[in-house]
From TrEMBL:
Keywords: CBS domain, Membrane, Transmembrane, Transmembrane helix
Keyword Membrane: yes
Record-linked Pfam families: CBS
Membrane spanning stretches: 12-32
SMART domains (alphabetical): CBS (SM00116)
Taxonomy of the source species: unclassified sequences, metagenomes, ecological metagenomes
Residue span, CBS domain: 139-196
Protein name: CBS domain-containing protein
Amino acid sequence: KVTGDYDRSTRIASLIGWTIGLLTIAGGILLLITEQQWFNGLTLVGIGWVLQSAAAQSRHRAIRREALQQVKAEDIMTRECPLISTQSTVSQLIRDYILATGQRYCLIVNGDKLEGIVTIENVKRVSKKHRGSHLDKIMTPASELKLAHPQQSAASVLGQMDEQWVDHMPVVENDKIVGIVSRESLVRLAQTRNELGV
């Protein structure tokens, strides 16, 4: 199975990277102690630490991906997602959604059609004097969004989020919004499944 091979390869590569990082740190410490080469020794320790950190991150991603492989987007998505018109203003969004509910994102629609998404990051970039602007001026348009399908694996959704550097992904079926998946819910589910050995 391709996914299994990829995850296994990632785990092996991260173990090799972690080991090289450990050896590099040991070499740096050895230079510090025996040769008194502070600059070279500390440089090697720093490089080793970076290698170990990168290897650990790769390993964690592979573990998360493996834990989410059997889960579908529809199993983890939030079905009640906030929808707001393109003609609503930033100040209305802040007042009626963000401050009232604590929501950190909102899907922007024109009728039933997804037009884009506004996240707390989009809102923070708008100065107070421009909060009367319509949301279609600050949203990330639908054409730039990656969309998930209900039957898509949660691991695949998380992979797309990582590629796009986004925290939320709308789930669409037959051009209709059926929910939204958040990175936070995916990571939490992966952690829970790993803790239970599922």
